[in-house]
Amino acid sequence: MAQVTHNHFLDTVDQVFNYAKAMKILHLNMEGDTFNGRTLQIDKKEVFHFGTTGYLGLEQDIRLKEAAKKAIDDFGTQFPLSKSYIAHPLYEKLEQLLHKLYGQPVVVAKNATLAHMAAIPVIAGDRDAILLDHQVHWSVQDAAKRLKLRGVKVELVRHNRLDLLEKKIQEISSTVDKIWYMADGVYSMYGDFSPVNDLLDLSKKYKQLCLYFDDVHGMSWSGKNGRGYVCEQIETIPPQVVVIGTLSKTFGANGSFIICGDEKMQQKIKTFGGPLTFSAQLDPASVGAAIASAKIHLSDEITTIQNELKERIDYFNGLLEEYQIPLVEKNESPVFFIATGIPETGYQLTRQLLDHGYYVNMGLFPAVPSTQTGLRITISRHNQKTDILQLTQTLAQLYPKVMEKTGNTLQRLSKAFKKDFSFQEETSEGLKYKLVEKSSIEQIDKKLWNTYFLGKGILDWEGFRFIENCFLDQVDKEHQWKFFYIQIFDLQENLLVMGVFTLCLWKDDLLAKPLVSKDIELKRKDNKYEFTSKVLSLGSLFSDGLPLYINKAIVKDHKVLNLFFRTIEDIASKNKASQIVLRDFNLSSPYDKVFQSQGFVPISMPEVCQIEEMDWNSLEGYLNTLSKRSKKHFEKDIAPFRSRVEVEILQQVTEEELDHFYELYKNVKDRNLGLNMFTYPKSVFQEMNRSKSWEFMSISIKNTPTKDSKAIGVMFCYKNGEITYVPSLIGLDYTYNQEYQTYRQLLFESIWRANKSGYQKIDFGVSANFEKRKLGARVIPKLAYIQSSSNFKMDYLEAQQ
């Protein structure tokens, strides 16, 4: 069978960024002829700058500027030669000063990204493993993942979870030489710290464990002489530790540097660390400025500068507490993350602050989970206390208004961030709207439900009663499904929203590429629930199509939609679901912006196939609906085999036949890792055998003795209200598939059966789209929207691609 088309992660990120760009809070351009660090000019308006990473403001220091100018005068705008051959004279001065600052030799690189690309391939051997903290900077992850081509094992570990790190060390220690754990010293989003001393203790306990820190956000403002957060914790760097520092950001110049506790390793990196050998060296101006900054760091003045920043950090921490603004991590770093939860609150608040004269960054997916967006505010020495006070007061004024406008509450934030923020009283939509929640289709008016879902896949009233009967009172966890039917009416009893959600266990790699699923299935041999999660999904894993009705008149009524979103979020929270999935939407869905604003990230779904042209009454009439190429396909791959097989339509079969059909289904299921779900229980097929809405299309070889006449293929078909014929599942004996073209025969025979039975259309569902298109099916792209409490599993699977 043909494989499912899979989503490209970058397409998802592109959609999210495009939304932020449309709000004019991303990819902005600064205007004006000068820049002083304190203010920016954007859209002809001067705004206070609270988004810098130059926390000490050294980039505006006159001494660094003059040193950069002199270096250009002395050596030109660049020194166009690899440093492996010859370095311009300023390099040696800089390295000597950094050696003095850190008490050991350093290797200077052009920037941190190139430093990682230079160091990581040298320090990690082919028999080593790399474990990446989930929130370690992208540049570290990118450099590490390149080593997978050499066979190096690379995996993500949940952020700052040393218990899981230790477990992973124990798991892989016998199969690798060294284990490199890579982390940030100070993390760039929340401003939280790496547990450096605990990691050092762990490296002493496990001699294979080596530590690699990116400390670019901990530089200069932290540690004695601005040596950085990590080196302040370590003092002397031991042989099993590597630290990457920066000469840009807070250091005020440009460039980066590498320090290894193992001096032999450091020399190897210097001798042949890819970008160090093949890239041009730092320009003289950057080195000159770095020398001037290094001299400041080696003087007592750096302590005074650090204290000036600390005073501002403490002041802002105090104001945020006084004005009761929800700060995600309170600490001593200059990075502050203000929780907004759903993206729409973050977009609106960021935009309104800009309109009021304050520029701040927004932390959004994929840097943070889509439901954990927020304002990333950074404090520098450029910010005066009056600026900080005015920002806080403006934020305190705007925050509750934007929260209310976007249907957000501190209670929702508390659930999203798993923190105890102070609660505010929620406005009640109950005065204007009536919310109805039910647990079974039996409790929903059949006529009302079928008004919107009759003829759509297996989404009609009878279809969901069948699904409920199949998955209630099951023994295995993966088959224990719960159903949630949601209706919202106005006070005049007009239906505004109606839909059904299913809570069940999903394989995390359900939509991953087959090779990824194949690898994960090996890990499931000992535990079939490895890499699985509870998911609250629109519809069910047994049905395709969109079981959600939204009255078009309320698309812009945020109060109704917010009630809907809060309802499903509450259901997910109470049932400990890690994801909410809204699925089966068309690419031109009118709800795209609404869903993204609520933290639902769009991803491509497997395409579906349908045939809607059924007004023919002969084989010739059917063939006339096909293209020339498809006609040739039929004449070559289907027509010659029709006389060799027997096709039967069975309403009910014996227990023995049903057992055989179930084995045929499992044959196909076990091969199809492109849509990797748990195998349906046999009770599903027993329920089909009892239902008048299902029939079995069986294919067997003609002229075979009775005792050998078992079916070589079967299609499990649902009949939706005499409107839509749904060939839902297929089973095959692959021994005969090639010889008798069983799969293609079943596809055609289901079309033939639907036409002869008077159905208006066929819903083929997903997968094998190429084969179905050749038989006249229309391939329809679909979108899903995912709201996740953590990016970890998505990032983990993306890392395996």
TrEMBL record:
Domain Aminotransferase class I/classII large span(s) in chain numbering: 46-385
Cofactor(s) for this UniProt protein: pyridoxal 5'-phosphate
GO molecular function term, any single one: pyridoxal phosphate binding
Superkingdom assignment: Bacteria
Any Pfam family hit: Aminotran_1_2
Keyword field: Transferase
PANTHER family: CLASS II AMINOTRANSFERASE/8-AMINO-7-OXONONANOATE SYNTHASE, LD36009P
Protein name: 7-keto-8-aminopelargonate synthetase-like enzyme
